[in-house]
Here is the input.
Amino acid sequence: MEQYKQEFIEFMVESNVLKFGDFTLKSGRKSPFFMNAGAYVTGSQLLRLGEFYAKAIHDCYGDDFDVLFGPAYKGIPLTVATTIAYSRLYGKEIRYCSNRKEIKDHGDTGILLGSKLQDGDRVVVIEDVTTSGKSMEETIPIVRAQADVTIVGLIVSLNRQEKGKGDKSALDEIKDLYGFETNAIVTMGEVVDCLYQKECGGKVLIDDEMKAKIDAYYAQYGAK
Here is the structure.
């Protein structure tokens, strides 16, 4: 596992973003783990988060893209933090763009925030986590309606590796539906490998009991 991935897993735990216990997800599933990207609230956290996203994007998609698009609302700070980090780490100026929930009819008008999309732009979409793919159903038509662009791929922070609408993961379903690559900074499998029977923040988060709960969860909901 790449060093930055291990550091990102530890960062999620330290930031109280990734938790282990008993949680009920929006889908109604009972999960032994939960991720809340809304817990990234400080300047130093956003600085590091942008760097982790930038490294993953560079690994997955290289430098051949122009715009980073983050769906409102959580995607807005992600795009800003990551474009700053990408410039600093790799010396390339990429533009950031997000959508508004409501179209603005005065001043900086339109549905987009940040850079306008232009014909020929190559776009990477950034999100926190995708479990059902619903946000992409709203986002992709907006992006493609603005200009003749190529969506290079999607990057999320954590691939939960569980079933979406069918037996495949939400990321694989998005890939099949829209025809672009989907990737994550880390997968849940990598999280388990990194944390199982190892201390993080002074305690073992995935012991044998928690590992058994995670295994049982994936036996029921794991993607094929």
